[in-house]
Amino acid sequence: MKIFDNVTEIVKDDLIQIIKKGSKVSIAAECFSMYAYSALKKQLENIDELRFIFTSPTFITEAVPKQQREFYIPRLSRESSLYGTEFEIKLRNELTQKDISKECADWIKRKVTFKSNVTNEKMTGFMTIDQSTYMPINGFTTVDLGCERGNNAYYPVQKTESYENAKYFLNLFEQIWNDKKILQEVTDKVIESISVAYQENSPEFIYFFILYNIFHEFLDDISEDELPNEATGFKQSKIWGMLYDFQKDAVLAIINKLEKYNGCILADSVGLGKTFTALAVIKYYENRNRSVLVLCPKKLSENWNTYKTNYINNPIAEDRLRYDVLYHTDLSRTKGTSNGIDLERLNWGNYDLVVIDESHNFRNGAGTHANTQENRYMKLMDKVIRAGVKTKALMLSATPVNNRFVDLKNQLAIAYEGDSENMNQKLDTSKTIEEIFKQAQRAFNAWSKLEPKERTTNVLLKTLDFDFFELLDSVTIARSRKHIEKYYNVSEIGKFPERRKPISLRPRLTDLNSAINYNEIYEQLMLLSLCIYTPSNYIFPSKMQKYIDLTHNKGNGLTQIGREEGIRRLMSINLLKRLESSVNSFQLTLNRIKALIEDTIQAIDDFEKYGAANIDMYEASESELDIDDANTDYFTVGKKVKIDLADMDYKTWRNELKADAEVLELLTFMVSDITPEHDSKLQELLKLISDKIENPINPGNKKVLVFSAFSDTAEYLYDNVSAYIKKKYGLDTAVITGSIDGKTTIKGFKSNLNNVLTCFSPKSKGRDVLMPGSKTEIDILIATDCISEGQNLQDCDYLVNYDIHWNPVRIIQRFGRIDRIGSRNEQIQLVNFWPDMDLDEYINLKGRVETRMKISIMTSTGDDDLINPEEKGDLEYRKEQLKRLQEEVVDIEDMSNGISIVDLGLNEFRLDLLEYVKNHDDLDKKPKGLHAVVPATDELSEGVIFILRNVNNSVNIDNQNRIHPFYMVYIGIDGEVICDYLNPKKMLDDIRLLCRGKSEPIKNLCQRFNEETDDGRDMSEMSELLSEAINSIIDSKEESDIDSLFAAGGTSALMSEVSGLDDFELISFLVVK
C-alpha cells in the first residue's frame, strides 16, 4: 500500500510508471478534463481501453427539461470541466485548447466508453489500472493527478496493489457498469461536447457568446413582468409591422425600462421616427388596458391626433389607439376645453402612462420661481405624475441635453416622481442620483474649459464616472444616424439622402447708394438704453416696498425688477436678431418701441399737466420674439402691475426715454428707404428660388422650404415671394407661423396646418389618402420654428435658413425636417444666409450686446439663470459650431457641445442577447476560450480582441470598468493597444460590427489562421498578445492608482494586488485578419 500526498509525491508520476501497453483502465469519478488526458497523453495512447463512470448525472439526456437551478448548476460545472476546471484556467490561457480537444476527441473515439449515473444515489470515486487501485479519486483532472494545487487543504490518494483488492473493485465496477437502471451511455455526448472546442465558430456566434458571458446575470435578473409580454399580441399589431428593426429594438427596450424604472427617455437623433416607436409602446400598454396621455407642443397635436382617430390618412387605424392628446401649455390651465377635453373635469391623475413629446421643453425643472407661480414642470409632477395611479413616463426628445446635465436630471425626475429615493433603490450604483449628476456636471464644466482642440467626446467619457453611465444606461435610449447606418441593415430602411455642402450667402443690406451697412446700425443700437422696459428702476426708494408687496405674490423668486431687466435684455438682443432676419421686421420693431415710448412720454406730460396718469408695464407679443425667447418665463411670471407716476422719478425717466426716441428716429430714417426692391437679401432669395426651380438637384423636384425665426419676416417673405413665384412660374406658396395656421396662394383652398403640409410634402404626409384625386401642390413653404420639430417633410430637398438662429441646434433641427430616413431624394441642400460681416466680428458683436445687458441683470435677480440657457452658452464654442455649419451639415450629437448620450448605453447589447437566447438556450454549455476569425475593416485594423474575466476580483477597485469583472482589450498585431478596457461601449460596438450577420465561419480566413498556428498547436504569437493585453489592463490600473494617490478621497492603490495572467480567465477571442 502507498499514499500519495499529491504535493511531494503525485499520482501522475506513479501513473506514468504503471500504465503499460494494453493496460485496462476503469475510473469512477465526478468529472473528466481533457487537460488530464493531455498530461498523460503518451501513456494513454497505449492502453487497451478506458471505461469511465460519471458518479453523478452528467451529459445524460433528461426526460424532464431543465431541472431546478440548484441541481443544474453543479451538473453544468461537471460537464464543462471537460474543457478544464476552474483550476485549469492557466492551461486554458495557453490557448492550446483547440489542439488538445482535437487529439482528445480522436483518442476517446478509439479507446474510451463513458457512462453516467442517472440516479441521485451517491457513488465514491476510485480508479483501477490492471492490479492497482487508487482511492479516493474525485475527478480525472490535473488537480487530482497532482499537477495543479486546486483548492484542497489536503488530498491524499491511497494506492493498493493486492490482487484481492483490485478484484473487489473490478467486480463492483463490472456490476454497476452493466446495470442499465443505474447507468446510461454518454460517449457520443462527450465526443460531441468536446468537438465544440475545436470546431470553427461563426463570428455571429462568438458575438453572442461574448454577450452571454458578460451579461448573463442580466438574463437571470429579468423578471417576466419587466419584459414585454408577448401575449398582449402587440407584435401582431399594424404599427409593429410598420417599424424598422432599430425601432423594434427600441420599443422592447423602452417597455423593459418603463416596467423596471417607471420612466425612459428616447433620445434618438433627428429624423429617426421616434413618434412611431412611441406609438408601438402605447399600443402595448393599451392592449394591457392602461390609459395613456400624450403631451405635445400644440403644433404637433395634428400628428398625434391622426394616429388615434378613424381618419382615412391614419395608416394604423386598425390598431384602434385611444390615448388622449393635450398640449404642454394645458398643464397651466384649469378650465376651458382643449383638443375636445374638458379641462375642468379632467382627472389628470388617472393616467398609467404619459408620453411627453419634445420633452426638452420640461428641462428647466422646478426652477427659480417655484413659489411665485407653479410652472409647467411642477404642474406635470403634481397633477399627472404624483397624483392618482402610478404613472410611467416616456419622454421623446432629440436634444435632451443642452449643455447642462441638469436638463437631463430634471427630465429623469419626472420618471421617479421627484423623489430620487425611488430610483436609487432600483439602480445598481454606489452613489445617489444627485451625487451622480453633480459629479458629471463638474466633469463637464472642467472639460468645457479645455481648448477646443482637446475638447473631444473621448476626453469627456474618460472623466465621467461609471455610475453616470449606469444611470443613463438604465433610463435612456439614444442612437445616432451614424449608429443606425453602421449597425443595422440599411437596405430595408432605405438610406439617408446625401448631404451636399451647405451654401453660405452674405448679401448686403441694400443696393442703394446711401448704402448703410450692418455695422453702422449696430453702432446706433448700442446707444439705446431701452429704459421703457424698466420703469421699476425709477420708483423712489421710499415707495419701493409698496410695489414689492404687489409684485411678490409670496415673497421670494423673481422680482418685478428682475423680470423687467430680463425683458429689456431680450428686447435688446431681439433688435439685433430682427435686423439679421429682415429689414422689414427690424422696422416693425423700431416702430412698435417708438410708439410705446411716445405714448409713455405723452402720459408723463399729461401727468404734469393734469396730475393723473398710469403707466402699464409692457408685455411683448409672441410675434415679436423667436420661439426660444417666447418660451422664457418673463412673460408668465407674476401679474401686470400699474405704477403710479407720483411714486416715480419720472423726469429722469422721461429724459432717458427722449434720448432713446431720438436714436430710434434716426434708425427708422436710416432704413426707411429700403423697400422690397432694394432689400438685397430678399432679392437674393428670389434669385435662389428661381435657380432651384429651373435647375432642380433631384429630377423634377421644385420644392423649397424657407425658415425664419420671426413670424413678421415669414409674412414679409410670403407677401413678396408668393407673388413673384406665381407670376413667373405659376407655382404656389404657403406660409405657417405661430399665429397663422396656414395661408396659401391657392384659391378656394382650405388652409390649415395639416392641409398645407400635406400638399407641400404629399408623399410623406399621405395626400393620396387624405385628398383622393387631389393634385394640389405647394412648392414653396415659408415657416417659423413652430414646425422645426417633429414634422416629416422629406418630399422637399432644399432648405433655406433665411436667418441664422443663435442656437446652432435649431439649425440642425430645421434641417431634420428633410434630412430623414427613407427619403426619396438622392441629395439634399442646406442654404444659410449670414449677416454681411466677418464671422468673428459677428460673434464678438453678439458677445458685446449680451455682456452689456447681463451686468444689470445680476444685480436685479441675484440669480442669472432665467436667461435663456442657450444664449448663455460659451461664445467661443458657438463660434466653432457656426464655423462648422458653413462647411458641413453637422449631426446634433456632434454638435451639442459634445454631450451626446448616444455614446453611452450598453442596453441594446443586453436586448440583442435576449432575442438570441429565445432560440438558442445552449450558450451556458459552450467552453470558454472559443474564437472566431473576422476580416479587418478600414477603421478596425488587424489584431485580436480578447475578452477576459478577472477571477479574483482584484482589479476594479476604483470602479472605472463598467462591465467588471469582464475586461475587453483590442490589441494590434504589433502589440499596441487599439482600444482599452475602459471603453466597453465602443468595443462592443466594434465586435458587433465585425460579427453581425456573419452566421457561418469565414472559410478562407480560418484556413489562413490555422496555417499560421499549425492548427492551433503553435499559439505562441497569440499567447504573447494575450499577456500584452493583460499587462495593458494592469498598467492602466496602476496609472489610475497613481492618479488616485493624489486625488481627494483616498487611494485605490493599496487595496489590491494584480499579479497577471493567473488572475484572468480567457472567455473568448476574436482574431481580426
Can you characterise this structure?
The chain is built from 41 helices and 31 strands. The longest helix is centred in the middle third of the chain and has 28 residues, at 583-610. Helix 28 (680-694) packs across helix 29 (711-729). Strand 10, helix 13 and strand 11 form a beta-alpha-beta unit. The radius of gyration is 37 Å and the shape is elongated. The strands form six sheets. Strands 1-7-6-5-2-3-4-8 form an eight-stranded mixed sheet. It has 1073 residues and is α/β, with parallel strands linked by helices.
Provide mean pLDDT, rounded.
80
Span between termini: 57 Å
Beta strands, count? 31
Give the CA-based shape: elongated
What integer value in Å does the Rg equal? 37 Å
Largest beta-sheet characterization: 8 strands, mixed
Helix content: 40-55%
How many helix segments? 41
What class would the helix/strand composition place it in? alpha/beta
What topology, given as strand order, has the largest sheet? 1-7-6-5-2-3-4-8
Amount of beta strand: 5-15%
> Unreliable segments (pLDDT under 50, ≥5 consecutive)?
63-69, 367-373, 553-558, 854-873, 1044-1058
